[in-house]
Specification:
Layout lengths: L1 E5 H11 L14 E7 L2 E7 L3 E8 L1 E4 L2 E5 H9 L5 E6 L4 E6 L2 E6 L17 E3 L2 H12 L13 E8 L3 E9 L3 E10 L9 E7 H11 L7 E4 L3 E6 L2 E6 L18 E6 H12 L8 E7 L2 E8 L3 E8 L7 E6 H10 L4 E6 L6 E4 L6 E5 L5
Antiparallel strand pairs: 1-5, 1-7, 2-3, 2-6, 3-4, 4-17, 7-8, 8-9, 10-15, 11-12, 11-14, 12-13, 13-25, 15-16, 16-17, 18-23, 19-20, 19-22, 20-21, 23-24, 24-25
Helix pairs in contact: 1-2, 3-4, 5-6
């Protein structure tokens, strides 16, 4: 194999796969990428056996071939090389020579035949979704997904699509058992797209993170497809596949209170800033903050014998009996950070009931945070 490729083109491809290549050295080949020549360029392939990505990049192919190289080493090397064209040439025993201006490097590679094959992507039954809208739904729910939670299914993001004659409604749900985030949006039904009426899949947190990263790179409509075992994502010459998670997602509807007795409206940025200040003096592990609702105000208080205490009062649109409860400040801050409206509505029934966060400026989103005893 021998190719000439712009340094920035190859660097872009390598950046996209850094989050996918396996960091643990259980199988050395999984820390590599596969470079395959095509008629008008090369393809970069990476996988951790759960998630795979294939991207096409322009290159001058002087000799066809393929090889597998360390994704991290090649990426770190190219970051230090000046802009210009790079020449990659395979040699005996899968060594690869890299020529970059006056610099020359040799990297130990592995045979392309050892690289795991990616699943075949089905072309049927895929739906085009607005890139910015899909990225927004992921952003508003991913923070609540479990991270290495012992309850395996909580490490995934639930995606549901409901199709009607003129539109498709997409809903994303994330929860780690302590908080729940739900975001939904209506998508325009693409002409000629024949989808089942309802689609439901649980995708790994890592797959959702990679989709969000690719969506934020540039504008464009990605294509989403679902099969029994796979979710596929295509955008601008990039193909991402991920195994769907097997299991039953918790009945999140049961967690959302139907009606809350006490409702307060507060300026979102003011509440966020106050929470950050007060949380500085909270206990590191619990981030516990006491929340006191009174007529016309909300008071935040925290106290730690080892650190100190903090109190802050904020004006709030609230009328009713005073209520004192407690929450993990980080959970509240995570929810406030992804909301779009200028004000936030807190809905609580009692000191030990969950708090529902909503915003009039963000009608498709809600977050439920479980209380803490303080």
């Amino acid at each position: 194999m021998k190719i000439r490729i712009a340094r920035d083109e190859l660097l872009t491809g390598l950046q996209r796969v850094q989050g996918i290549v396996e960091k643990r050295n259980t199988m050395p080949i999984l820390s590599n990428i596969l470079l395959e020549t095509k008629q008008d360029g090369i393809e970069l392939v990476a996988t951790d056996l759960e998630i795979g990505v294939r991207g096409h990049y322009k290159a001058d192919v002087q000799q066809a071939g393929s090889v597998s190289l360390s994704a991290r080493k090649l990426y770190e090397l190219l970051k230090e090389v000046a802009d210009g064209e790079i020449t990659l040439t395979t040699q005996e025993n899968n060594w690869v020579q890299i020529q970059a201006g006056r610099s020359q490097f040799k990297i130990v590679g592995m045979a392309a035949s050892e690289f795991p094959a990616l699943p075949t992507i089905e072309r049927e039954g895929r739906v085009a979704v607005p890139g910015s809208g899909f990225a927004s739904l992921i952003r508003k729910t991913l923070f609540a997904v479990g991270d290495n939670d012992a309850r395996y299914i909580l490490n995934g993001l639930l995606i549901t699509l409901h199709s009607s004659e003129k539109k498709v409604t997409m809903k994303l749900v994330g929860t780690d058992g302590h908080r729940l985030a739900v975001a939904e949006s209506d998508l325009t039904q693409s002409a000629g797209t024949d989808l089942p009426k309802d689609i439901k899949a649980i995708i790994p947190r890592k797959a959702a993170q990679e989709m969000r990263r690719l969506l934020e790179e540039e504008e464009g409509e990605p294509l989403l497809g679902f099969t029994k075992n796979l979710v596929t994502f295509q955008k601008s010459g990039l193909f991402l596949t991920s195994r769907v998670m097997e299991g039953t997602y918790p009945n999140y509807q049961q967690v959302i209170p139907k009606e809350s007795a006490k409702k307060a409206a507060i300026e979102r940025t003011a509440l966020e800033s106050a929470l950050r200040r007060v949380a500085v003096l909270s206990k590191d592990k619990t981030n516990a903050v006491k929340v006191i609702l009174q007529n016309g105000s909300i008071t935040l208080h925290t106290s730690s014998p080892d650190v100190g205490e903090a109190t802050e009062d904020l004006p709030a649109q609230y009328r009713g009996e005073s209520l004192t409860t407690g929450f993990n400040a980080r959970y509240l801050l995570d929810a406030l950070a992804v909301m779009d409206g200028d004000s936030v509505n807190l809905e609580i029934s009692s000191p030990l009931s969950p708090c529902v966060l909503k915003s009039d400026g963000d009608p498709g989103f809600l977050c439920v945070v479980m209380p803490m005893k303080i």
